[in-house]
Write a structure and sequence with these properties.
By secondary structure, this protein is α/β, with parallel strands linked by helices. It has helices spanning 18-22, 24-27, 31-52, 58-72, 81-88, 97-105, 119-128, 151-161, 175-183; strands at 4-7, 110-115, 137-140, 168-172, 187-191, 207-209. The chain is built from 9 helices and 6 strands. The radius of gyration is 17 Å and the shape is globular.
């Protein structure tokens, strides 16, 4: 029996590319490249900061990653930075998310977010997407001062809810995140929105889906 459905936030519930898409004309002809680099560096900084034991919260890393992306792409309009950062506080959720979370909540299980995002970022994203009544808790790594994929991040769910790893269904669009959750014993669902090839094959997901609707079908 699943006692908690736990979701990664960025890329799983919220579309990380919606900020740049909203201001694509202002960013310039290579807006998609800017968005891809922004996301890549955002994750890279979280991993390297954790390895160095030099924590900065995810919002600071998000801003630093955008600075790099805008500097890396010659055609990018640097003046778009303020609008892009403001948009990141109000990312669009994927279309199926509200109905999926509502049906999972109706089962009586906990519905939670486990994210690298800072507490403020998560609260803003949940509120702007009108998910407040559908999410029991938004658990941030701020509490630990370390980012995914260290096992202690996933342990927070078990400590908060006083359940075992096998009681958790964990959903993420990030294959590395799924591997880490699998390693601590969670049941895992890889939401492979981008139809990416598999990796970390010794830590395979229990299910692979193209979007979250599969959870309730």
């Amino acid at each position: 029996m699943t006692k908690a459905y736990v979701f990664d936030a960025y890329g799983t519930l919220f579309d990380v590319h919606s900020a740049v898409r909203k201001f694509a004309d202002a960013v310039g002809p290579d807006a998609d490249m800017v968005s891809d680099i922004w996301r890549q560096k955002q994750l890279e900084y979280s991993w390297t900061r954790t390895l160095m034991n030099r924590y900065l919260d995810f919002w600071q890393l998000t801003e630093q990653a955008l600075d790099f992306a805008l500097a890396k792409v010659p055609s990018a309009n640097k003046d778009a930075k303020k609008d892009l950062l403001e948009a990141y506080w109000n990312l669009e959720c994927f279309p199926e998310v509200p109905s999926v979370l509502a049906k999972l909540k109706d089962t009586g299980a906990k519905v939670a977010i486990l994210s690298n995002g800072s507490s403020g970022m998560l609260d803003a994203a949940v509120s702007s997407a009108n998910l407040t009544d559908l999410v029991d808790d938004a658990i941030s790594v701020d509490r630990l001062g370390r980012f995914k994929a260290v096992p202690e991040v996933y342990q927070m769910v078990l400590d908060d809810y006083q359940i075992s790893a096998g009681d958790v269904s964990f959903q993420s669009s990030n294959r590395w995140d799924i591997a880490a959750a699998n390693a601590v014993g969670f049941k895992t669902v890889w939401c492979n929105r981008g139809n990416q090839p598999d990796e970390y094959t010794d830590l395979s997901p229990d299910r692979t889906v193209s979007d979250l609707k599969a959870l309730i079908e």
